[in-house]
Specification:
7-stranded mixed β-sheet, 12 strands, Rossmann fold, about 250 residues, about 30% strand
Length: about 250
């Protein structure tokens, strides 16, 4: 989702606003080929306290140091946790509903902002966090490389990115395998998924969401000034600790 959403298109924010009271709400994702899926966790995952996070999510927080940018903050679970540790965090999301939920939950600095609009006006960060599969917000390989180079300039010498993604090739589902083949035939990365989020009568615009294997991630980082320092595996997603390369970005 590149740009800020409005009231009619903010299905994601409406879902979070419905879930902030604790009511069970399903998260529905529709893929461009007609495949529809729901999260097994619903919205509860967005509001989960740290002790209930998956183990690799908890482990990844050990690498979030200094001043932090939380990209795609959702309901603010990462920001709330880091604020509790005394860290300064800027939470951004392009969903007005998500930012409203963040503020209700005590996020000190929540801004309605797309990943595309992150720039020097936000200041310098020591860590960028992209949880909730939010490496996907890079959308495509060219955009990922462009923004990774920008993030290199917007982070300190010890800057790092703590990002979550998924290896979508690890499936035996015929519908998913067919979609991956369709992407390859169109010259797209296999995990460059075009989807939208639905809630009741609302739907977000269609957007590209990039999921990569650890190997694909390492290739994407080439010449951007970043390198994979560590990968925290799980049976589902993984968290990559991405460090600045001593050589810096290529030309």
């Amino acid at each position: 989702m590149r740009r800020q959403l409005d009231e009619r298109s903010d299905a994601y924010g409406a879902m979070l606003l419905a879930g902030v009271s604790g009511s069970p709400v399903a998260e529905i994702v529709e893929r461009e080929d007609g495949f529809i899926d729901t999260s097994k966790f619903g919205t509860a995952f967005y509001f989960a306290p740290f002790r209930r996070w998956p183990a690799h999510h908890r482990a990844g927080m050990r690498y979030a140091r200094g001043r932090v940018l939380d990209i795609g903050s959702g309901a603010g679970r990462v920001t709330v946790h880091l604020q509790g540790r005394g860290q300064e965090v800027v939470a951004i999301d392009n969903s007005p509903g998500a930012i409203e939920v963040c503020r209700r939950r005590g996020v000190h600095d929540a801004r309605l902002l797309s990943i595309d609009d992150v720039d020097a006006s936000l200041g310098i960060f020591d860590t960028i966090v992209m949880y909730g599969n939010n490496f996907g917000l890079f959308a495509s390989a060219p955009k990922a490389r462009r923004l990774l180079r920008r993030f290199h300039r917007l982070t300190s010498e010890r800057g790092r990115i703590v990002a979550e993604s998924r290896d979508v090739s690890q499936t035996d589902d015929p519908a998913h395998l067919a979609y991956l083949d369709r992407n390859r035939s169109r010259g797209r990365m296999p995990g460059q998924i075009r989807l939208r989020v639905r809630y009741r009568e609302l739907a977000t615009p269609w957007f590209d969401y990039l999921m990569v294997s650890p190997g694909e991630l390492a290739n994407l980082l080439g010449d951007t000034g970043w390198t994979v320092g560590r990968v925290l595996e799980s049976e589902d997603t993984y968290v990559a600790i991405i460090e600045k390369s001593p050589r810096g970005p290529g030309l």
